[in-house]
# Entry
Amino acid sequence: MFMNKKSILFKNNTIIYSILLIVFVTIIIFFNTYYFVGKFQNITDKLLQEKAVLVEDIIGIMIDDVNNIAEVEAEIIEISEKDDEILDISILQISEDNEKFHRIISIHEKKVDTADEINFLAWRNEEGVAILNQDHGERYWRVVKTIREGEEKVALIELKVSLLNSDKFIDAAIRQIYIVTVIALIILLLLIVNHMRMFQYVLKSNRLEELDEMKDSFIAMASHELKSPLTAIRGYAELLKDSLKQDDKIKESESMKENLRYINNIDISSQRLTALVEDILEVSRIEQGNLTMNITQINLTEIVTKTIEQLTNNAKKKGLKITSELGDKNILAQGDYGRVQQIIINLVSNAIKYTPEGSVRILTKEDKKNIYIIVEDTGMGISADSMKHLFSKFYRIKNEKTDKISGTGLGLWISRELARRMHGDLTVESMEGIGSHFILKLKKEA
Ligand code: ADP
# Structure
């Protein structure tokens, strides 16, 4: 199953492209968000550093006399209490030997001397020093600047500003990026699975199409192959019938009468089989697009007259009257002569087949663009429900009246397809128990 899916995956470029595209888009979104979060972190770091410098400047301005320790300390404590990001503020004075600094004021640090390099650096540097430190996982800015009275450096101010709040925010943002990426990946996986299913459906439908084509070619081939033996069977049955009929002595014998009946049955059955094979071959020709049409101007009056001549005997056998209202006037239309003849023969044969008593009438009507050949009968008619399926392949109305009537259920489907390929149509109007009108529409002009 897995191998199968794998091969499906690699056989189809569209799937690979769409997967690559989805992966690419997910990666881009991930890194883009990551980049912006990083940028945001840099900006907030910078802002906090500036804030520390600003606080220091303010304190520097506020302090009138560094040596008034109690007052300075009170002011520093007040400032630090207002801002929870300030971890510590210290004031340091350089020793007389310039070797160390005395921490004279501090909120949290011990007031011990220090010889920290950063402090000396800040003492020497006009701008002061700002470094990013970390203590127990908490990042903070340590900003050290000189305090001056006029031009003279009198002390150092050291400020520690925590980055905890902004770091917490950034951590939460990064966590969200991970979650969004995981969700995106899950969606991606689902899409891939879905694509896989879709592709399998496509494969299956391709396979079905192939099988359908194979079936069509098989039917075409089998029907074609059946034609020759069937012709032979019918030929021999005819021969046997004729020879038995010619010999009067044999004809009289009981056993020969029985044989004649059998031969007759063979003849009728092979006729039915021939009709079925012909119809199936016709269907397969239509479905495979192998139908040749030679559309020209044709004489409908001639076709209808010929059809009536051909089928009058069948009608008479059933005691049906068959008439045409076309008269002598040549009614012309656009179509393939043989195919139109085939349709009209089928419609008139059906009218005769499905009319137990009464008559069959052929007439024409016309409008600006079309000619309508209407085959009317006073037969069993068709129910509204059956009419919905009438032009489907192999559909036959099944009831006690149609039980003994043989047929393939393909004639109407073939006739409508042929009519449509000649830019016409075949429709029906019918009432059960009253009769039917089959209407063949053909174009007047090309
Ligand atoms: P077939 O006659 O070989 O069965 P058709 O495709 O020509 O196949 O017709 C399909 C079905 O339509 C027939 O089986 C019959 O039930 C119905 N039908 C066709 N023509 C008529 C008609 N003139 N009157 C009533 N029923 C008809």
